[in-house]
Design goal:
ten-stranded mixed sheet; binds threonylcarbamoyladenylate; five-stranded parallel sheet; globular; alpha/beta; 15 strands; binds magnesium ion; 31% helix; 12 helices
Length: 342
């Protein structure tokens, strides 16, 4: 397939790009578009033939449901079932934004979107390009992250092109995604809200407005498995990933004793990196600002794949806030977890 690739930051072709993307969706095609979390791969959520193309392009198992994107939350009422009071409150406070609410579904959407479940995820991105595209297409757009299944989600246009050129009809390129991790997913079908995937809207943010099921908040115990190497893998670069959990001092002395070759990468906070002299150093920014770690993790993993990195040492963050989203992605990608200083 010949993919049309557009740079949305080029004002001279902007209108043509958005129209081309809207036409492709209406004709049952698939379109890559930027959002503030990660790049998405979208199709008309009411058209099963179109939705099937998403699963084929990604190599995604059909039992994993897709979330549905709208330009405005009010547009979702025509396509979903009951929207609970909790879902409404969350939408009012945090949408548009990096969160997905799970509500009851209706038969207006393709059954492939929900993978046979009686619920569906609704998301209203705040990225200006995403919103403009979604408002103009005026259809519910089912969209997972625009990576090939198992690879890190694309947070930069070049990574979306790498995975989807030749597979999607249109690729809309924006800038690097603001958050770099996928939206917070919250199940709003019960009395208490359950956090299914941590993201930039944090447990603390949600607890201010709705009752949250405590058991669903990612606790340190869950994030840091006792025995390494047994995790179900997901966001996986090809390198062997070793997560180090400890103070700057502990990590620095561990690395100085370790075997570091030219195809090893070190993904650490600046306070650690500035005291180590090695080739492939990738920054997670300031330890007190986990936003940067979340923003960079997938881009660093992609860089490692491109450079043929075989081994990655990477730092954990403390839990709470967006650090939970970072640790959730790292836990799914890592092969080994080492707790230092005990
Ligand atoms: O930020 C994001 O959410 C990005 C951008 C493109 O919007 N999308 C995204 O989609 O990350 P995806 O498919 O990669 O992740 C959606 C997650 C999956 O883990 C899926 O299993 C879960 O949401 N999910 C979807 N529908 C669900 C449902 N009805 N019940 C429970 N989980 C659901
Ligand atoms: Mg994904």
């Amino acid at each position: 397939m010949k993919t049309k690739i557009y740079d949305l930051t080029d004002k001279t072709i902007y209108d043509e790009a958005i129209s081309s993307a809207c036409e492709a969706i209406k004709a049952g095609g698939i379109v890559v578009f930027p959002t503030e979390t990660v790049y998405g791969l979208g199709a008309d959520a009411t058209n099963s033939d179109a939705v099937r193309k998403i699963f084929e392009a990604k190599g995604r198992p059909q039992d994993n449901p897709l979330i549905v994107h709208f330009g405005d939350f009010s547009d979702c009422y025509d396509y979903v079932g009951e929207v609970s009071e909790n879902a409404g409150k969350i939408a009012e406070t945090y949408m548009p934004g990096p969160i997905t609410v799970i509500v009851r579904c209706s038969d207006r959407l393709s059954p492939l979107v929900t993978a046979g479940l009686d619920s569906v995820g609704v998301r209203v991105p705040e990225d200006e390009y995403a919103r403009d595209f979604l408002r103009k297409v005026n259809l519910p757009v089912a969209a997972p992250s625009a990576n090939i299944s198992g690879k890190p989600s694309p947070t930069k246009p070049e990574y979306a092109i790498e995975d989807m050129n030749g597979r999607a009809d249109v690729i809309l390129c924006g800038k690097m995604c603001d958050y770099g991790v996928e939206s917070t997913v919250v199940d709003c079908t019960g009395e208490k809200v359950r956090i299914l995937r941590p993201g930039a809207v944090t447990a603390e943010d949600l607890m201010m407005i709705v009752p949250v099921d405590e058991a669903s908040i990612s606790l340190e115990a869950e994030l840091r498995p006792k025995s390494p190497g047994m995790k179900y893998r997901h966001y996986k670069p090809s390198a062997h990933i070793i997560a180090l959990d400890g103070s700057d001092e502990d990590i620095i002395s561990y690395i100085r004793d370790a075997e570091i070759s030219d195809d090893t990468a070190l993904i650490f906070f600046d306070s650690i990196l500035e005291r180590l002299e090695y080739k492939n150093k990738l920054s997670l920014g300031n330890r007190n600002n986990p936003e940067t770690a979340a923003h960079e993790i997938f881009a660093h993993f992609r860089w490692c794949d491109k450079m043929g990195i075989k081994k990655i040492y990477i730092s954990c963050t403390s839990s709470g806030g967006i650090g939970d989203a970072y640790m959730n992605r790292l836990t799914k990608a890592m092969d080994e977890y080492i707790r230092l200083g005990e």
